[in-house]
Amino acid sequence: SPRVARRLRGRTFRERPPLVAMGVKKETLEAGDGSTFPKKGDRLTMNYRGTLANGQEFDSSYKRGRPFQFVIGVGQVIRGWDEGVMQMSVGEKAVLDISSDYAYGPAGAGGVIPPNADLKFEVHLIGIN
Question: What's the pTM value of the predicted model, to 2 decimals?
Fold first, then answer.
């Protein structure tokens, strides 16, 4: 298809400006069972450690000494968790790199997570209850 030049604020572009990566990217650290995956509405038990892009930790279930439980796929957690954790099997340990639009966005959170912050979570899916 032919490229169509567009004018944007007085400048002509022949191609779209580059898009910023958004969403969640999962990197497996330790494989799970490979067959038991969470489904929307399942109650999960997980451990996690959350950090900002600069490595500063803002939350950790390990430090609290107890795993975190929540229902997946119903908005109880940030979108990056709802989408990223659904790709994990029981027992898996992974890193979720989550862009700000899949985290807390321009609002930030609790004075601990600044506006528009990308987040990194080391997560361990312990079980589906």
Answer: 0.82
Give start and end residues of each alpha helix (H) in 46-117: 61-64, 79-85
Task: Return the structure tokens found at 75.
Answer: 């908005």
- Give the number of other Cβ atoms within 10 Å of residue 108's Cβ: 15
CB proximity list for 81: less than 8 A, separation 6 or greater: 72, 96, 98, 121, 123
Concatenated DSSP letters for 23-39? Answer: SEEEEEEE---SS----
pLDDT digits (tens, 9 = 90+) for 27-76: 999 999 999 999 999 999 999 999 999 999 999 999 999 999 999 999 99
The residues annotated as belonging to the active site are: 48, 58-59, 78, 104, 121
Residues 103, 104, 108, 111: is their CA dihedral positive or negative?
A: negative
> Which two three-digit tokens encode residue 35?
């067959």
Contact yes or no for 50/121 (Cβ under 8 A): yes
Q: Whole-angstrom Cα distance, residue 3 to residue 23?
A: 28
Rounded CA-CA distance 119/127 in Å is: 23
